[in-house]
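Re: the 77-residue chain
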Amino acid sequence: MSRNREEPVYNRIEEARLARGLSRQELADKVGVHYQTIGYLERGEYSPSLALSLRIAKLLKQEVSELFSLTPFKKGR
C-alpha cells in the first residue's frame, strides 16, 4: 500500500489573529504551542491536529469552518 500525500489544509488564522490584535507569540501561548508553529500554520506548511484547530477557533471566537478548509478561501472573505 502506498502512502498518499497529505491533503493541504487552508486557513485564515493570520487574518483572525490580527483582527483580535494578537501576535503569533500571544496566540501560541494561549493555545499551548511554540510561536513558530503558528507561523507554519499560517503559511500552510503544517496541518493542525483537530484538537489544536478547535483550541485556535475557540480562542479566536470563530467556527472551525471559518478558519480552516480543504479548498482555498476566496479572496476578500
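Residues 50-59 form the longest helix (10 residues).
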